[in-house]
Amino acid sequence: MNPTYQPNSWLAQQANRFAPALFFIGLVLLWELICRFGNVPNYILPSPSAIFMAFFDVEFSRWLTHLWATLRVALMGFVLSIVIAIPLSIGMMRSQLMNRVLYPALIVIQSTPVVAVAPLIIVLLGTDDPSRVLITCLITFFPLVVSTTTGMLETPPEMIELSQSLRAPRYRETWQIRIPYAIPHIFSGLRVSITLAIIGAVVAEFVAAEEGLGYFIQFSTSFFKIPQAFAGLIFLSIISLLLFKSIQWIQAWFFPWSLPKKK
Amino acid sequence: MDNQTPIDDNGKAAYVSMKNVGHKYDPRPETPMVVQDINLDIHRHEFVAVVGPSGCGKSTLLRMVAGLLIPSHGQVSVFNLPVTEPRDDVGIVFQKANLLPWLTVRKNVLFPLKHKYGRYSASDEKRANELLEMAGLTQFADKMPDELSGGMQQRVGIVRALLLNPDILLMDEPFSALDALTREQIGFDLLDIWKEHPKTVLFITHSISEAVLLSDRILVMSKRPGTVLDLIEVDLPRPRSSKTINSPRFAELTDKIRGYIYEPNVPA
To answer: What is the superkingdom listed in this entry's lineage (chain A) (predicted)?
Structure first.
């Protein structure tokens, strides 16, 4: 965007202000027109209006069931990965040995495509929530470990010297200095992880599930109910966006000092 | 070791003593020394400045007195005891104010107690308020550090170092991040604080005029490996003010030091 651009007429100002929304609306209209006048069949690319109507083809309570199933798995996996990642990062920061032993293992886990491992996890843990939560956790926890560790290591050295000059116990150095300093990093990790959590939940549902939006999309596609599949996809995007936003709200509410300064 | 009193209170007791101090970070023989052959006694309530070019090991010296770094050669003593670890009666003011951005000014001042003991009492809080008042910061006590100017932040840094009432105050280029005007003002403020709460001060700076303006004696260091070029007595009368800067003696002293910095091989 050109920062020096100053629209002068009222109309130009409004157009400038709503440019992102107008762009989006334009895109949807274009899509609708292509489908209508290009005679694209609904089972190849459904038009926006067909997708809209598909929302009503499925009972509201069914939608809620699918939404809740995906959200539940995503959140459980996300929370589990926080519970694992943060203590793990503290341990790796405090102990050179732990860092040397665990870091290669983490890299191996991260480099293995979770989609490929998912069926094996289902075999191991069964087709219920635990395996889906584990799959989600495997996808989400690496960015958290990296961001937390980076944040704690980037604590200003003078701050650590202050702690040493007071001969304070190490756990207070971690708890009162390093972890708060890592908060901005932890939150950027959380923002990455929360969107990955939805991906993890959907991957798990593709492999084994009887409910959830991932399952619903796969099921609809296999019956050529493509507009329904798109409707499910829209729900997925919406919860993903809302979760991402919630992380930002939590940071702004509880840790306002950790946000970049607005000038 | 916490309640060690000085050996002698006649005013000339060496509070801080460095004997043939040298340091290298790497013990292999071919690696160069950072500082070398430093001998210095700092007396009770004396204000000693250390000046020298960047990288001459000024900060290394301060960290040795603080007990954050044990010298590889020679010995640093505080109150006649070799320094083996940080002591409670030594306070440090860092180059950047080093405040915790998530704590209010008052809580930052109280942080050393919170950090060391996990708590502080109502009387500690009273002391923090008194110190803040002395530094003219009362109205900022409940503000966050980023709402304060750089000069204000460094005042908080000084107040924090005074909280545990240290006998010795170590200052590591405390005003180097400030603009020239703020810098001069906060220097005078420091002298006021020092008059009211006399401390033995070791003040690291790369500003020659700041060293002359503030201190009783100046240790001039060579470039790396840092050695003592001269130990200069600053015989300017106290209290010092902006008038001091205009006095001929001030110019003589700064010229003398400047001579060392620019022509390090010419003897005085």
So the answer is: Bacteria
